[in-house]
Amino acid sequence: MNCTICLFSRNLRVADNSCLAAAGKSGLPVVPVYIDDGLSASRRSFGQRSRWWLAKSLQDLDRELERLGSRLIVRRGSLVREITRLIGECNPASLHVMRDLPGQAATLEPVCARNDVQLVVHDDLLMFAPGSIVKPDGSAYKVFTPFWRRCMATPPPARPLATPRTLTKPAKWPASLPLQKLSPDAEKSDAQLDRYGQQGSRSALAKLRKYIQRHAADYGKRRDRPDLPDSTTRISAHLCFGEIGPRQLWHSLNPDTGQEPAKAPELLRQLIWREFCANLLNDFPQLPERELNPDYTCFAWQTSDRKGLAAWQRGKTGIPLVDAGMRELNEYGWMHNRVRMVVASFLVKNLLIDWRLGEKWFWNMLVDADLANNAANWQWVAGSGADAAPFFRIFNPVLQGRKFDPAGDYVRRFVPELAGLTSKYIHAPWLASPIELEAAGIKLGQDYPRPIVSLAASRERALNAYRKMRTHKSS
């Protein structure tokens, strides 16, 4: 046997990488590989923004591997076909892969068995291995709080693994696709997304250290404020692509004992929510397409309101906080978490548009598009998912704006045509008098659209649709 292959997927880092560490310890030359089959590791076609981030992230990974005396081999095509070809070219003793959800490792078992290659599967995606956090009877959790408690009663995740000092090169490198050609169109068209931040593990760790030093203690107070700089860590894309691992985040919050981090317990709770969503997708693979709660299969979702959907996508609904959030998404490929809930609620409850259309839009537009998080959170807002918000909980974007963007700074940043309004009317310009609108230089319906729906009337319409669904269930 000539080497061992380390297959990268959602673990695009050299530190705390079980696959790479095990391959390096094998004593054999290591061939690091990424297979670009057009699909995310979750086995769904990449969204536009995710593919842009991926291209940048792989370039950074290649530089990290070069520091270890190695390089990244990139192949394009079917995962099974390319691994089969690599096995023929490299004659490996083993193939190290990360367990993913719903998983690519299982598709490689027949290939490895036919070619007498040892398939070694590692758990790096989550802090706790998929399926290890279950109820006492072995069934899956569908409510977050008991899942959280079970995680907290479980021994903490192992400490992060060190970066290998060096990797042995193979005698001959297999052919590789030039990284510059991986996704040139997406890279060119979305160059403005660079403002989100630099890709790669070193950037992720630096961002995390800076946040912990300056803001982690106030995370619980600031995390719902889109108007405040650094109100959240902004490492979600790094975590999504595995440029930083969840174990690294856990132990960065409490480096001394490894027990429950005391610096930012609310931040840890968000990390455990990620684990909860991943386990839901593992146990219910149809989560992105089918309501987890079967009652909602008969709900009267709208799929033909093209004008409403387009207005929401463009940030032209006439509801300032919703429009600010959607424009932030369009500009940066990211949106503040509190605002994500507000814009999702507006789409599925005020417009009654099918949550799947929102989920697909987010998937295409977010740089941190994680299939489990995206699907579970959309179903949470829609009321059809696990531990979901009840359908009658409908976010009022005006009240949400006044509470979490009190001076209107977030709206002014992304909806500059409203910048002249006072904080009293910035979240509801239709309530301003003609004199106040004129003073702000605004003509509703021209400079900024009037609301496409009445918040009060659309809320009542949503509640009536919910009542009809409940009646249908009972009959």
Put the structure in a nutshell.
By secondary structure, the protein is of the alpha/beta class. Helices cover 45% and strands 6% of the residues. It contains 20 helices and five strands.
Describe the structure.
By secondary structure, the protein is of the alpha/beta class. Helices cover 45% and strands 6% of the residues. It is built from 20 helices and five strands. It has helices at residues 18-25, 48-67, 79-90, 105-114, 144-152, 184-189, 201-214, 219-222, 236-240, 246-253, 265-283, 306-314, 320-332, 337-350, 355-365, 371-382, 397-404, 409-414, 434-439, 455-474; strands at 3-8, 30-36, 73-76, 92-98, 118-122. The protein has a five-stranded parallel β-sheet, sandwiched between helices. Strand 1, helix 1 and strand 2 form a beta-alpha-beta unit. Helix 11 (265-283) crosses helix 16 (371-382), helix 13 packs across helix 14 (337-350) and helix 14 (337-350) crosses helix 16 (371-382). It is globular. The N and C termini lie far apart (66 Å).
